[in-house]
Amino acid sequence: MLYFLGQLGDSLAAFNVFRYITFRTAGAVMTALFFVFLFGPGMIAGLRLRQGRGQPIREDGPQGHLLTKKGTPTMGGLMILSGAVISILLWSNLSNLYVWAVLFVTISFGAIGFYDDYLKVTKMSHKGFSGRQRLLIEAIVALIAAYVMASVTDPKISTQLMFPFIKGSGLPLWYFFYVFAAFIIVGAGNSVNFTDGLDGLAIVPVMVAAACFGLIAYLVGSANFSEYLLLNYVPGTAELSVVCGALIGAGLGFLWFNAPPAQIFMGDTGSLALGGALGAIAVATKHEIVLAIVGGLFVLETVSVIVQVVSFKLTGKRVFKMAPIHHHFEMLGWTESQVVIRFWIISFVLALIGLSSLKLR
Where are the domains of the chain? Predict the structure, then answer.
């Protein structure tokens, strides 16, 4: 919305600043941050009043959780989504289809997560939305977004899979690309969902990944930078830097209230939406594999769940003391803060490895 003030720059030079993506990204960060700071306490109070006993805590989980986390409200993703979406609408170029595709995924996945959280809270059970139904709806949303983003991308690369650390053309996937892109988006959403199990554990790696992809989107969307770095130029994706900025700002605001001991959990409302947004941005910028590197922590959490389930079904034995893997380390005697901070460190290291792919080609 404010982007269009830049059109006044021809007559009033002061408005030129609204044309700059860097300025609007900074504005998106601050707007989302202040929105969550301002309205967060009221949202927490309202959710606590309506939810009563808060999010159901796993009885088979670490016993300390039953004492420290019981009664904490969930659906904190509403704080993140409201701050981020308002900031995106305020600072983005709303004529950009990439922005709308990412918003479509973010809001849709947030709505799916909200319904799942609602069922869990009202039934006081871990069994929310049917897993198959949820994945089907997520897949439909992701396929639509993938089609929209591919339709506005250069046809020469729109359905290609690009590889990090390798310059030149990628692997043509043709129509299978839409399935692959949907898998990335759905997988990213559910991976963040698996990671969200301890106070502050998921939101910081999400912000780290958003910062990385904010930079990637800016470079890939710039003809000069993409040529210098031997990246595939995708016009229009630079605008997604503003989207990433809004996610970072809203995430910082949420972390203020989610820091141990958490006043609120993001729930599926937030984790699905944030993961889906990262997946959609990765697809738009043609950096899907880099997302698996930068978001390697999310991949590790997901793999730990898959390995645990497959092992138990085939052999009746568990590989980990508990899955996802962050609970495994808790069961080994790590304190919650040790798990969280060490996992943050891992996410920073993986982000640096992912960013190195921009230059090492």
Answer: 2-356
